[in-house]
Amino acid sequence: MDWTMYLETERLILRDWKDEDREPFAAMGQDPEVMRYFPGLLSRQDSDALVDRAIAKQSADGFCFVPVEEKATGKFLGFTGLSRPSYPKPLPFDPCVEIGWRFCRQAWGKGFASEAAREWLRFGFATLGLEEIVAFTTVTNLKSQAVMRRIGMTTHSRDDFPHPMLDSDHPLVAHVLYRLSKEAWAQAAA
């Protein structure tokens, strides 16, 4: 299912990965504030491997986490998209399609994550025909949870889970799960 990814919003372009995205993406992975809710910083090798996995997912699934570019400047802001999680240990709600995002600090507080995520929800439900899209993060990542709520996702404490890839005593192990059904998305869009 090899095809080009290109979505547009009022201020953003969501598109395929390019080689020139690797440098600013690697810089994000070395920023302690950007990576605050992840187990650690990403080496350049790990960052490049993440891009390579995203490209492979695009080829296999027809979607992945892709770069977000500011229309007005052409600047790389981060990434957003849909993905089928593929951890070595399963998530308690597998199989699923998740929506996710990560932006450079200069892009924070401008509504870019919500704007890009809304377009991905539209693509996931209207184009791909998904029945549900999920998002998850550590319980302490309140800003990301605020984006999840802004785009219409809801959570319930019964869905909270320990991330299977983290040790039980890791400070980020406790995660919250947000969900959005196609039906709820369609009702909100109407």
In terms of DSSP E residues, the strand content is 15-25%
How much helix is in the residues? 25-40%
Helix tally equals 5
Uncertain residue segments: none
Largest sheet, strands/sense/barrel: 5 strands, antiparallel
The CATH architecture category equals: 3-Layer(aba) Sandwich
Order of helices and strands: EEHHEEEHEHEEEH
Structural features, described:
InterPro entries: Acyl_CoA_acyltransferase, GNAT_dom, N-acetyltransferase. This is GNAT family N-acetyltransferase. Pfam families: Acetyltransf_3. The protein has five helices and nine strands. β3 and β4 form a beta hairpin. The protein is α+β, with helices and mostly antiparallel strands and 190 residues long. The mean pLDDT is 96. The protein starts with 5 loop residues before the first strand and ends with a helix. The radius of gyration is 16 Å and the shape is globular. The protein has a single domain, classed as Gcn5-related N-acetyltransferase (GNAT) (Aminopeptidase).
Observed structural traits:
24% strand; Acyl_CoA_acyltransferase; 5-stranded antiparallel sheet; N-acetyltransferase; 5 helices; 4-stranded antiparallel sheet; GNAT family N-acetyltransferase; alpha+beta; 190 residues
What's the gist of this structure?
InterPro entries: Acyl_CoA_acyltransferase, GNAT_dom, N-acetyltransferase. This is GNAT family N-acetyltransferase. The protein has a single domain, classed as 3-Layer(aba) Sandwich (Aminopeptidase).
Give the topology, please.
Elements: E1 6-8, E2 12-15, H1 22-29, H2 44-61, E3 65-70, E4 76-83, E5 98-103, H3 112-127, E6 132-138, H4 142-150, E7 154-155, E8 161-162, E9 174-181, H5 182-189
Antiparallel strand pairs: 1-2, 2-3, 3-4, 4-5, 6-9, 7-9, 8-9
Helix pairs in contact: 1-2
